[in-house]
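Q: Hi! First time doing this. I have a protein sequence and I read that you can turn it into a structure. Is that right? Here it is:
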Amino acid sequence: MQIHNLTSLLPPQFSETCARVKDFPRVFKRSWRDFKVIELQECTSSLDTAWDLITDKRLLPGDSVICLQQTRGRGRMRRNWSSPPGNIYAALHLPAPAPERFNSLLSIVLGFCFQRALACRGIQAFIKWPNDLVVDSGKAGGILIEEKKGGLLAGIGINLKSAPKDAEMRRDRSMQASDLSRQWPGADPAGAWAQLVYWGHFWYDETLCNYSLIDFISEVKPYLWLLNQKVRVEQDNGVLEGYLQGIDGSGGIMLECSGRIKHVRTGALLS
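A: Yes, that's right. Below is the predicted 3D structure, encoded as structure tokens:
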């Protein structure tokens, strides 16, 4: 286990840029310069390690864990998350609770924050409801929110160097996988994570402190994958079809179905 100060992982030119950006202690209650990144070569899951460190009071809000290889990485609905070396498998400790207006939208909020963070690297990404990041029309990352005993973690996986092969993925997957090897060649997981987590923190603070719920819904809308396109939503009791119109205040999506708007809170979004 290595414990880094976030600033030590940032390249010098990046640190100079950060120095010109306002500090953001409003949500995190301390400067980003004090944030720690705990790096492990291997673990069961970065989330598991982060929960242990929170219990021991060794991981404060703003701190994060990055694991270079997971043996039991997990995604949404406890599905296995393929975790070969070279990608980002991180857990970010967030302040809890979030403002009440955002409680049901946290995966979308984090998706927005990291979509904006990737944009700072010149990488165009979209948010696929409810918790995926899409690059080059493929799933390049995912976000998993976990909350217990007053603690709040965001598990963040990003295919930095490689994506799972088709044979490694579920047969019922909604899209192919992609990675950032072309957009961010030569990036190492810890250094790339430091840059993304800095901008992710910045946008998290901006969102929770400056946006009303209506403002946020409007702000995130242009970055939604398949916006205004005809989509299918697979649910336990069948499949809904309609045109994706945006998200609502409950964290669900709005579908235009035969001229009427339906609010959908659960399911898998299919193109």
